[in-house]
Amino acid sequence: MKTQDYIRLEEDFGAHNYHPLDVVLSRGEGVWVFDVEGNKYLDCLSAYSAVNQGHVHPKILQTLIEQAGKITLTSRAFRNDQLPLLYRQLSEITGYEMSLPMNSGAEAVETALKLARKWAYQVKGVQKYLAEIIVCDGNFHGRTISIVTFSSEDLYKDDFGPFTPGFKSVPYGDAAAMEAAVTPNTAAILVEPIQGEGGVLMPPDGYLKELRQIADRHNVLLIFDEIQTGLGRTGKLFAQEHEGVRGDMTIIGKALSGGFYPVSAVLADKELMGLFTPGEHGSTFGGNPLGAAIASTALKVLVEEKLIENSAELGEYFIEQLAEIPSPHVKEVRGRGLLIGVELKESAGGARRFCEALQERGILCKETHQTVIRFAPPLVINKETLDWALPHIREVLNMA
Ligand SMILES: *Cc1c(COP(=O)(O)O)cnc(C)c1O
Q1: Is 343 helix (H, G, I), strand (E, B) or coil?
Q2: pLDDT tens-place string over residues 38-60
Q3: Which of 260, 341, 379, 361 lies closest to 23 in space, CA to CA?
Q4: Which residues form ligand 1's pocket by a CB distance below 6 Å?
């Protein structure tokens, strides 16, 4: 079957909830992916940062095969011999005392929201059910009904109401607006350290630190959604570390499994996480031994192969080189580590045609918010590969 045959099948039988580039991938290896016609591409999306460790990392693959041959799912009705090891490892690597495993990122966000509300009622003393959670305009936290409730993107919400009460949204990067929105009923602030889906939007320097102070001043929890920015993507384990702050909860997902399996988690200290008691929350697949084993190796790879350091070093180089490209279309190059956005001018005619032109030259990128090209290759990328890609990017950014 050829590319067009797969596309026709997909269009005929699948829901049309995505608008993918017309490339049908059948194999991946490290930073490279291959389509059904045998073409090779540099993956500059990394499945929205889920394959930070590179495609089909051999060590993670080995773990998957070995663990799949032993036991894959016990449910949490019984214990398994993989989850406790992941718990300990997460604590050692992140410094949080405890974690709660889920599968998708959205589920982990929901978990954090539930825990924040529970804390508000049980610890802060907010009257039932008045707890409020403050988020930021332009956020992306997932696709459940409660989460799209506080999205500012009409496309994500239109026709999906009625929505969930208890959320407020303020402009991203505006600490004064955040503080003004806090009331005695505020349970938590939920924020991305960099808004990835929002267009690789970086808040002003000091913003995260100010949020930490606001949260402390008003007895409010600070929750960082690091599902995209975490696990090395921005050149630190967590993007919040760039400002030396620590959330009361940090949410991770995506690269936690190196792209092999949906694994997410909420991280928090005992005092907070301990509020959950048996039966109050759960997931059939959450914490399953296959996912736990995979996540454990995915974390090990991140550390052992110094992918966080590589992200910092090559990210700086990539941003520098991109910023030096003379182009009539580029408005701004921004980012941190290997999470990079090239924002195009209004006159450029949208980012999609640039992504299509990059595809023709063997580089896969996805536009975000119509005008931003995101460059987020797997963290295993090397300088040689970037030096191969840069002339192509230069050409494309200078097309008519
Ligand atoms: C991808 C993402 C999510 C949602 O994760 P899913 O696994 O798609 O549910 C939540 N928050 C952020 C910041 C993300 O990038």
Answers
A1: strand
A2: 999 999 999 999 999 999 999 99
A3: 361
A4: 48, 104-106, 109, 140-142, 192, 196-197, 225, 227-228, 253
Tell me: cis bond preceding 289? Omega within 30 of 0 counts.
no
Atom of ligand 1 nearest to the CA of 107: 9
- Per DSSP, what are the bridge partners of residue 28? 33
- The angle subtended at Cα 193 by Cα 187 and Cα 199, nearest 5°, is 120
What gap in Å lies between CA 85 and CA 263, rounded to an integer? Answer: 15
- pLDDT, tens only, 211-260: 999 999 999 999 999 999 999 999 999 999 999 999 999 999 999 999 99
Residues of the chain by 3-state class (helix, strand, coil), percent to 5: 40, 20, 40
Reference 254, options 55, 21, 46; nearest CA is: 46
User: pLDDT digits over 386-399, tens only?
Assistant: 999 999 999 999 99
254 is catalytic: yes
Q: Is 38 helix (H, G, I), strand (E, B) or coil?
A: coil
Q: Using CA atoms, how far apart are residues 103 and 250, in angstroms rounded to an integer? A: 15
Picking from 334, 314, 328, the residue whose alpha carbon sits closest to that of residue 383 is 314
> Residue 375 catalytic?
no
Token code pair at residue 329: 């279309």
Q: Which of 254, 276, 354, 375 is catalytic?
A: 254
Is 154 a residue of the active site?
no
Strand order from edge to edge, sheet including 40-43: 25-29, 32-35, 40-43, 363-364
Domains defined along the chain, listed by start: 3-56+306-397 (3.90.1150.10), 58-304 (3.40.640.10)
d(CA 208, CA 229): 14
Smallest Cα–Cα separation from 42: which of 344, 308, 393? Answer: 393
End-to-end, the C-alpha distance of the chain in Å comes to 34
